[in-house]
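Hello again, I could really use a second opinion on something today. For a while now I've been wondering how a particular protein folds. Please have a think about how the structure follows from the sequence. Here's the protein in full, and shout if anything looks odd to you:

***
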Amino acid sequence: MGRLADAAATSISVVLPCLNEGRILRTALRRLQFMRQRGDELILVDGGSRDASAELARGLVDRILRTEPGRARQMNAGAQAARHPILWFLHLDSVAPLNADQAIRRAIGEGACWGRFEVRLSGRDWLLRVIERMMNLRSTWSGIATGDQGIFVTRECFQSVGGFPQIALMEDVALSRLLKRKGRPARIRRALTASSRRWERQGILRTVFLMWRLRLAYTLGADPERLARIYRTCGSPGPDS
């Protein structure tokens, strides 16, 4: 009985926001089936896909939710429906390292209420190695995580800060700022591989400068809705945009 109780206390609900990801969806979900075998759950939150993503996910997730588009809205809906005490927000085009779930359980068990992974970008260009190193150093220094880094958090802690702020862009940064009040994030050194498709599609340096511009504007108080329009206009969609 004690072992069952311990397992329940460290079970994970993986929240997967989705929008038009039919091309990669089944491959991504198959990679996560081991978590279901360990008693965790997968929650797909579809934001109005036009490519039958939700239908393609049937049988590979524990539940499918449908919401209006917007990553913050989608992830909050997934968190609200979650059955387990640990939440892991994961992009469908990210590849988790081996035994990522065990690393999350260990971090939470050691007292962290939230955390993130180191990140590696999937492409081969040497500039991507520089960018991922900068991303990891920035997060280590600032305590701010991005969605590409696979944010995980206890449900209790997530609820205590009100979840993701309902903003059109930078919801991951906004959540990190709230969670920092509860403590510094745990840092899992094994890298989660994030897709570099937006960098390669739009140009690596162009995408870097765009993201720096948007992040600086957000820090200075710019309206996230206006920043989201710039993001879309510049043609740099993220994994689920």
Q: What stands out?
A: Residues 1-5, 236-241 have pLDDT under 50 and may be disordered.
